[in-house]
Amino acid sequence: MTKSGRPEEPVTDRLFATERQPEDFRFDAAVARVFPDMIRRSVPGYTTIIPMIEVITEQYAQPGSNCYDLGCSLGASTLAMRHGIPYDDCSLAGIDNSEAMIERCQHYIALDDHPLPVSLRCEDIQQTPLANASVTTLNFTLQFVPPEARSHLLTRIAEATRPGGVLILSEKIRFESEDEQATQTRLHHEFKRANGYSDLEISQKRSAIEQVLIPETLEAHKQRLKAAGFERVLVWYQCFNFVSMLAIKAE
């Protein structure tokens, strides 16, 4: 942070630019500092998904309800939801288990002049209380939850969601076909190269993240969401092996 309390200007992600000892990826202070640049250059369509979260929130937020951004990181989707909520009697909470992310998120929220209050909580999204929800966002978050715990979390979200409410779920996916998986992975790596990442950076980040980010197939996601209690699951965005889905609770 600067001395004025404002977040620093965007910092270029160089975390994997030099040889380093293998270690699992963590959302620590170093990652928090470069996160805006990292996710923009790593996730195709991220700059489209964020403003569309505002549009979807405006369509599905219900008066007197709660809205949640689970795994809010620096608050990009939280702010999108804040600007999309059309009712002043709604509440909005951003939850993340990384203290470094929450600390920086607080500054971004404070700099935004929208009047709707935002509650930020440093908690495990698998344990945080959920109730009376109309819009919940898991924006590239579920993939970091252990696979065996994902059904329970989605069931908790569905049970807390009002009739007609939604879950916005963005994820990196894998494909049933090995050929398609190889092609989509190659295209994703080319996207990273086009954004200035070197082969060393791509390789080292992939090694660091592959043990903590566990992708699943689109069909697995759809089946789990329906089993959890959502009536319909729609894919509203896809680029390479990154998708965003809308899971809708029956009215």
Automatic annotation (TrEMBL):
Record-listed S-adenosyl-L-methionine binding positions: Y46, G71, C72, S73, D96, N97, D124, I125, N139, R206
S-adenosyl-L-methionine in keyword set: yes
Superkingdom classification of source: Bacteria
E.C. number(s) listed in UniProt: 2.1.3.-
An example molecular function term from Gene Ontology annotations: carboxyl- or carbamoyltransferase activity
Entry-linked HAMAP family: Cx_SAM_synthase (MF_01589)
Free-text function comment from the UniProt entry: Catalyzes the conversion of S-adenosyl-L-methionine (SAM) to carboxy-S-adenosyl-L-methionine (Cx-SAM).
Classification via PANTHER family: CARBOXY-S-ADENOSYL-L-METHIONINE SYNTHASE, TRANS-ACONITATE 2-METHYLTRANSFERASE-RELATED
Name of the molecule in the record: Carboxy-S-adenosyl-L-methionine synthase
